[in-house]
Amino acid sequence: MAGYFAIFLVVLTIGSGLVWLFDALVLAPKRQQKLAAVAAQTQAPLSDEVKEAILSQSYIAETAQSIFPLIAIITIFRSFLYEPFQIPSGSMMPTLLVGDFILVEKYAYDVKDPVWRKTLYSNSKPEHGDVVVFKFPLQPQVDYIKRVIGLPGDRVIYKDKQLFVQRACDKSAQTACPTLDPLRQEFLSEGEAYKYNVPLKRFNEQIQEKTYQIYYNEQLPEDIPNYYDQAGTEPNEFIVPEGQYFVMGDNRDNSQDGRFWGFVPADNLVGKAVFKWMSFEFSEDPDSILPRWVPVGVRFERLGPIE
After folding, report:
1. Residues 276, 304: contact at Cβ < 8 Å?
2. What angle do CA 111, 116, 120 make, to 5 degrees?
3. Pick the catalytic residue: 16, 91, 255, 279?
4. What's the confidence (pLDDT) of residue 253?
5. How far apart (Å, rounded) are the C-alpha atoms in residues 99 and 85?
6. Does 146 participate in catalysis according to the annotation?
């Protein structure tokens, strides 16, 4: 089921529309009849003030008529086209930072109704490397954002900070099944971000035709004992079930992702993150008089498509 705000928008849209419709079809004709009856009983022509007083809508009806078109447009846009999100954590650094505001393309995959989230229309499927927003499987009222690493049928291994992916084998094809291959990585820089005072390294990583940037450091141990326990696999191995996806954060040493809780069902997908439309910078000075949530600048250089 959708979040409270989505339900609120739908209820407000339907409620204001029904009030407006009831006023237009039932109450407005009655006001016209009352005006005609008053005019018939009065020899002198009615003044504009009297006519306006008789024909005027109630405050509720007038408000409903005013807000319905705007609320309906917002609800349709947010439910089926694009929904704005704010990045709350650093799990997708360096791709997405705290303070980034993004647009999620709701029709990129399955189009769902805004309340019960039942599929209305099936579009395309996620691809390797897509950045997706989804309902967290363990707490569906919470939205998560991660990168798709494994598609249904894929075999994924994460060992010594290196990803290996063996794509699902198409047994109907006449070609050999894909092999287990490491994702290509290229070192870029070090020291832009830290974890436990250890400088993180920035890499380019490539999966299929998509290249993006990640953070990690070989000195930080992997939390393998807390990895998701999938029957029949090694502790750092994941075989993606049908109808589900394996996702990870780009900040590999600071992300609670599929390694720890498993897979994302297709029904939990909200959409594809496609654009950063605003990015606020916040003060990291502990002596600052401003609250941590108050922006101190705008990072215009970060605006643009999400890779």
Report:
1. yes
2. 30
3. 91
4. 96
5. 10
6. yes
Q: Which helix (H) or strand (E) holds 215?
A: strand 210-216
Amino acid identity of residue 195, one-letter, is K
Q: One-letter amino acid identity for 271? A: G
Q: Which two tokens stand for residue 170?
A: 């198409």
Spatial CA neighbour of 265 closest among 168, 130, 165, 137? 137
What is the reported pLDDT for 223? 94
Q: How many other CB atoms are there within 10 angstroms of residue 276's CB atom?
A: 20
pLDDT for position 47: 87
For residue 100, give every residue at least 6 positions away whose Cβ sits within 8 Å of its Cβ, in sequence order, or none: 86, 87, 276, 278, 279, 302
Instruction: Please identify every stretch of the chain with a pLDDT value under 70, giving residue numbers as ranges.
Output: 1-2
Domain boundaries, the chain: 4-80, 87-305
Tell how strand 143-150 and strand 155-159 pair up. Answer: unpaired
Fold exhibited by the domain 87-305: Umud Fragment, subunit A (2.10.109)
Tell me, rounded to whole angstroms, the distance of Cα 190 from its chain centroid.
30
Question: What's the confidence (pLDDT) of residue 1?
Answer: 59
Which one, of 256, 254, 245, lies nearest residue 130 by Cα? 245
Could you tell me the sign of the dihedral formed by the alpha carbons of 61, 66, 67, 69, in that order?
Answer: positive
Active-site residue identified among 106, 146, 272, 276 = 146
Please give the pLDDT value at position 75. Answer: 95
